C-alpha cells in the first residue's frame, strides 16, 4: 500500500443559491478517489458553509493509481425529496503533490513543508463555470518502495521549463523520452446519447485528466529507467481525433538535476569544476542502485515497446547504457562521405500519402544509429558551450489517416518521423536535434504529423553548471568571455559541414566574426538565441502564412493524398515568404521558429512565426531585388518601395549601425560602405529575390513593401521594471474565411498582422513594454479561421525617465525599499552585472531574511499570482521551484446569447480558467506560474441550439518568486 | 468585417479608466467607440477603428462580468476571477456608485421600488443623462437603501463598511437614504429650484442634530429623536414673549443690518417668528415633518424673498434670533435652551441653503 491521501474540507464560500424558496443552499461535499467515496455532513441553509468536523478523509491507494486517478470533490446541494443537485466540482491531480512528496522524502535538507495543497479552490461546473470556492487541504504521504518492477514514477520531477531549471544543477542529460496513450473520447461513446451534457462533460474532463496523468507517469517511468530524476522541457498534447479517440502525447528530456543551495540560487554559483567522465559514471551508477531502478535490465524493453525501433535499440543499447552522458558521435568517416541523394525524400514511409516536406531538405543517407535512439532534446536554452555549431532547422512531416487504430500504430508513425528527422540532422553533420517539438493537425480523419527541431553539434562535456541565469543572460557576454577568443562568439553560427560537402547547395559566406570559417547567409533555428551569439540588440517578431486550396474531398484517402501532394508546395511558399520578410527587416537569423500546419475542409495553411534578429557573424542581408522585364513600370515602382521600406526597417531596428554594442573588437565588416545598388531590375536569376511572374507575386511584393511597427520583442538585454510582473494574455480571434487569391493567405496574413497590432494596442497602458515571443495557434474549423495568440508583455523601464524614478513609479506593487535596490542595480550598466550586484548586496545585508518574510514586509498582495510564458518571471528571482501544473477544463453552455455571444462565453471561460490556475498555484505554495501555456483544444458552437462548448488546457511550472 | 469571436483576456485584468468612465456614463459600445475615435485614439496609438472597437468590446464584456460583483463590493475583493490591484478595485467601486447630482435630484422623493424602475425615462429626460446611467444610479440607491435601512448605528459608517465607499460618497448616500427614510417631500413643483446639493446640506444638518446619532450605537441615525420633537412643542412660550424677543433682536441688529432689511424686520418680525416657532411646534406630527421643506419655503423663504433680504443679513438675523431667545428667562426657566439651540442650528442651516437669491 504505497500511498495515503488525506483530505479535509473546511469551508465553502460564495455558493450559488440552489433553493429558490429560502434563497440558500444545503451544501455537502462528496470526496471521491478511484472507487471510494466519502461524504461530508450537510451544512444547512448557508451560502458560506463551514464543515466543522476535524476529520481527515483518508484514502489508501496503490502507487500507479495515485498518479493516474484525480481526486474529485463534488459539491452538492442536499434535497430531501428529490435527487441532490450538483453545484460543481474540484478535480485535483495529485502529480504535483507526489513530485514534491517524493523529493522531500529524498532530500531531508530542503525544509519546505510537506506535500500539502491548501487553500481556496474555485468550484467549477462544466455548465455554469465557477460557482463559489471550497477551502480544502490535501496531503499525500508516500511509503518508500524499492520494488524493482514498479509501475510508478513518483520520484521524477517534471518541468515545462525549456532549460535546466534555474536553481538546479544538471549532473547529466540522459536524452529524449516520449510516450503516447490512446483512449476513447467519452464525447463519442454511445452512452453520451442518453446522459446529460453535464455528466458527459465531466466524464470527458476526468478522462482527459487521467490520460494526461497516465502519459506523464509513463514518461516518468522511462526517464527513471534512464537513470534520470527529472524531465525538463516537458510538452504534452492532446490530439482529438473524433470518433477515433483521443491521443495524449508527451515528449521531454530526461536529466539528472540537484537543487542548488537555497539562498544564492544560480546567481552567485561558484563555477563548478568539471568532473571526469568516470566520476559521473560512478555516481550515476550509484544513484541507480539507490533508486533500485534496474536501468540496464529495462532498457531493452524500452526499445522493444516500439517494434519499429527494436533494431535500433539493440544497436544503440551498448553505447547508450554505458554512458549516461553518452550522446557521442560515433559515426565513421564513411557516414560523412555518403553522397546525399536528392530524390529519396519519402523513403521513410511506404504509408498512404507520406509527404516528407521540410524547410531544409536533406535527404536520407543512412539508417545507422550511432547515438542514443534519438539524439533529441526538447530544451530550447542551454548552458554556454553546450552548442558547438548550429546546423539549421530540420523538419519532417507525414500525412496519415486516423482510423482508430491502436497506440502502437501511432507510436510507429512518430517513430518514422523521428527517424527521418534524425537522418536530416545527420545530413547536416550534426549530432543532435535540440528544441525538438512534435505537432499534429487534424481535419476529420486526415492528420498531418510534424516533427521539427534544430540540428546542432553539441558538446556534452561542457560545464553544465555554468547555466546562464535568464535574467542576467546577456547578449553582451561576449565582453566577459572576450579573453577566451573572438571566435568563441561566432563559432556557434559556423556551419558544421564543409562547404563542398553540404547536403544541399547552400549559400555560404565567410564568418563576420573570425573571418575564417564559413557561415550560412541565413540561419533558421527553433531554439532560442544562445546568449553567446553576438547580435544587434533589437529583435522583431516575424510571421509568414502560406495557404493552398484543397482540390479533393477533405476526408479519407483522396483528401490525405491531396494534402500530401500540396505540403511541399506549401512549405516552399512559406519558406520563400519567410526569407523575404526576414530580409525586409534587415535581419539574417530567426530563432524560436515555430511552424504549424492547419487543415480546413477547403484549404490547408502553414503559419511560421519566429524572432528575427541580426547576427554579427552572418553577412548582412542585401536589399531585395525584383526580377522582371526591363520596361515594366510597375516592377520599378515596387522595387523602389521595397528598397525604401527595407532601409526604413533597418533604421528602425537599429540594424544600420555597423558595430554592435556587444562586439568589442569591432571586427564587423563595413556594411555602412555598401551603396544602395542602382535602381535596376535584375535579370540574373540567381541574385534575385522575387520574381514577378504571376499576379500573386506582385501582391506579395506590395505587401512586403508595407511597413509595420511591432511591439518590441523581449530580449535578455532589456531591463524590466523590478517588481512589475509580466502581463500574460491570450487573444482569440475567429471569423469567416474568405478564400481569396492564394487560398486565403492574404486574408490570414492580415489577421495575423491585426492580432499583433491588437495586442500592442490593448496593452497600451503598460508601455513601455516588450512582448515575449508570442505563440500562435492557427485552426480552420469549418468555414472559419481561428487564430489564438498567447504570450506576455513585460513592463520595461522607461528609457526617457531617470532610472531611479521608473522603479518607484513603474508599478504600484513595487516597494520603495526595493526600488532602491532595483534602481541601484540597474543604474550600473550591464544587466548581468547588476543582478550579481543586487544579489550580493541582499546577501550581505540580510542573510537570515527568509523570502516569505520579505514578501510580506513588502506589502505585496499575497494572492497576486503572475503567469509568465518564460522560464522565469522578469524583474524577480525564483526562490523555489515547486512543481509542474497541468489542468484541463471542459465548458459547455446552452445560453450563448445570454452570455454575450460566443465571445462572451469564451471571455468568461478564459477568465475563469486563469482564475483557477492562479488558485491552484497559490494553494500549492507558489505565487507565479512560469512556462505558462494556454491551449485551446476545441471551440464549437451551435447557433440554433444557442449552445457552445470549449476545451482549454493550461499549465506551467509553479514557482515561488521574490522581488 | 464579419467576426464571430474576438476575445482578449489577460492575467491581470486590464481596466482602462477612460473606457470605464464611458461605460459608467451609460454609453453603448458603439457610442464609446465613436467617442474614443473622436478623442484621437486612432492617431495617438496608431489604431484603427476596428481595433478600438475590439478593445471596447473586451472592456464592456469585462465590465458586464464585474457588474455582478460590484453590486456587492465586498465580493469584489474576495472574488478570484479577476486579478485587480486594490487601487483599481477602489476606483471601480467608487465610480460605479458615483452619483450624478442631476439624476439623484430627480430620484429624490421617488419610491425606490422595482416597480418604479420602469418609469426612469422621465428622470433620464429631465436630468439629461442616458437611461442606462439612471438605471444604474436608481439600482445603486435602492440597494444601498435596502441594505442600511434596518442597520443600527451610524448610517454613513454603515454604508462605508458595507459598500466600501469613500467618505464623501458615503455621506451623499447617507443623505439620500435619510431623505428616503423620512419620506421628506422634495418633489413638489415649488421645490424644483433646489439642487441635490441643497438637500444634501439640509439632510446633513438634520442628521447631525435631530436624530439619535449622538446618543449611542444602538440607535438609528435615520430615525428622528422623538423626545426632542415632542419637546419642541414647548417652544410655543416664545410666542407669548414676542415683544421681548423682538426688542432684544432689534437692539442687537440695528448697527449691523442694512437699513432696508432692518425696516423689513421691524415690520414683519411677527410673521417670521410665528412661522419659525409654529414650525417647531408641529414637527412632532409626521405629516408636518415630511413637509418640512415645503413649509420652510412657503412660510419663511418666500416672505423673506418678498422682503428681498440679502443673504448676509439673513444670516445675521438668524444668528441674533437664536442668541436673543437664549438670553430670555422663559427658555431658561422651562429648561429649553438646548432644545432651542438644537432646533435653530438646523433651521438656520436649512434656510440659508434654501434661500437662493
Automatic annotation (TrEMBL), chain A:
GO biological process terms held by the UniProt record: intracellular protein transmembrane transport; positive regulation of D-glucose transmembrane transport; positive regulation of protein targeting to membrane; positive regulation of vesicle fusion; protein localization to plasma membrane
Low complexity compositional bias, start-end: 810-820
Region (Disordered): 258-354, 470-493, 795-833
SUPFAM superfamilies: C2 domain (Calcium/lipid-binding domain, CaLB) (SSF49562), YbjQ-like (SSF117782)
Residue ranges with Basic and acidic residues bias: 276-303
Biased composition (Polar residues): 263-275, 312-324, 798-808
GO cellular component: plasma membrane
Ranges for domain C2: 1-107
Gene Ontology molecular function: calcium ion binding; calcium-dependent phospholipid binding
Entry superkingdom: Eukaryota
PANTHER family according to UniProt: C2 DOMAIN-CONTAINING PROTEIN 5
The name this protein goes by in its record: C2 domain-containing protein
Lineage: Eukaryota, Metazoa, Ecdysozoa, Arthropoda, Hexapoda
TrEMBL record, chain B:
Annotated GO CC locations: nucleus
InterPro entries: FIBP (IPR008614)
Superkingdom classification of source: Eukaryota
Pfam families to which the protein is assigned, alphabetical: FIBP
This protein's name: Acidic fibroblast growth factor intracellular-binding protein
Protein species of origin: Spodoptera littoralis
